[in-house]
UniProtKB/TrEMBL annotation:
<dbReference type="InterPro" id="IPR018163">
    <property type="entry name" value="Thr/Ala-tRNA-synth_IIc_edit"/>
</dbReference>
<dbReference type="InterPro" id="IPR012947">
    <property type="entry name" value="tRNA_SAD"/>
</dbReference>
<comment type="similarity">
    <text>Belongs to the class-II aminoacyl-tRNA synthetase family. Alax-L subfamily.</text>
</comment>
<protein>
    <recommendedName>
        <fullName>Threonyl/alanyl tRNA synthetase SAD domain-containing protein</fullName>
    </recommendedName>
</protein>
<dbReference type="InterPro" id="IPR051335">
    <property type="entry name" value="Alanyl-tRNA_Editing_Enzymes"/>
</dbReference>
<dbReference type="InterPro" id="IPR009000">
    <property type="entry name" value="Transl_B-barrel_sf"/>
</dbReference>
<dbReference type="Pfam" id="PF01411">
    <property type="entry name" value="tRNA-synt_2c"/>
</dbReference>
<dbReference type="GO" id="GO:0004813">
    <property type="term" value="F:alanine-tRNA ligase activity"/>
</dbReference>
<dbReference type="InterPro" id="IPR018164">
    <property type="entry name" value="Ala-tRNA-synth_IIc_N"/>
</dbReference>
<dbReference type="Pfam" id="PF07973">
    <property type="entry name" value="tRNA_SAD"/>
</dbReference>
<dbReference type="GO" id="GO:0006419">
    <property type="term" value="P:alanyl-tRNA aminoacylation"/>
</dbReference>
<dbReference type="GO" id="GO:0005524">
    <property type="term" value="F:ATP binding"/>
</dbReference>
<feature type="domain" description="Threonyl/alanyl tRNA synthetase SAD">
    <location>
        <begin position="293"/>
        <end position="336"/>
    </location>
</feature>
Amino acid sequence: MVFSFCLGSTACSDLFHDIPLSDRSLPTLVHSTRSSRPCMATKAIHLASRPPRIVTLAPRATPRAYTASRTLISPARAAMTSPKTELVYFSDTYQTSCEAKVVSCEPVEDPGDDGVARFVVVLDRTVAYPAGGGQPSDTGRIVGPGGVAFVVASVASTKDGTVTHLGEFEEEGAAPFNADDEVIVTVDADKRLLHARIHSAGHLLDVAMTNIGFGPDVMVPAKGLHQPDQAYVEYTGKVEGLDKDKLMADLKAEMNKLVSLGGGSAAAMMGYDEAAEACGGELPSYIPKDSTPRIVTIVPDTAGCPCGGTHVANVKEIGSVDVTGVRVKKGTTRVSYTIEGMKDHK
């Protein structure tokens, strides 16, 4: 049996929200965790991708994992189901186009105030990343027979692992796709890479927190958001008399040091025991013993954590990092950051 988890850079959440397909914005949900145990941090699984992905960014990194944004997958159902849509991006962050067949193309009941007809397209496979793990979805185009083009505004995943592409046809009045039409899906490559870099930086922040003495024994990763206009990780816990300016400076220095050191990534399917060993000795209890987790390592020879987001192949690709704020409120410490390419990055 092969399972996958929509688990992001460090923490996981059991937040799941139903939304109508007519919701055109499909905002990204943040992720959260409640435990600091290696690979036991997650409380929610998302199987809108293939086998569990384990991502590691640096030594002693406490694994964090994310739930999918608006993916509608419950932990119990996810553990016993396989995704209906093949996720091509899962094996290669940098692949931004693929061939596919149309499963369905249905109009959205409420087209919105502008009166533009919108559709939900389901394919047998896709290269488009559905929003999740604090990471926004891809956007792009689906081109079918005769060059008919469909503009993908957002991507999401349903409870059974079906990926839905929401958008509109470029030409008003164009005939919708038919089942079994052969199409080509292409996503915005620059946006894909930016999202992967921001997401990876979320992992890196946890690593840096641990390396400078604020690991999960002091502050437990709680939730985070990784979008071009805002990125942060929240930690449960606070330090009395915390020098916020010093923390920001130390984190910035440590994160940029890790970026400069770099390290290539690797991925491998592993048996349960091997995967548990790769994750620090154990896997979450909800992972079946007969499953075959997929282990992804971004920095060699480090412990991993389940993750279903897109990530850079080498930490160097994250680029310069700035820690822009520390907020402490009601026992929660939020650390905000930016990287090159994000809004307001300096």
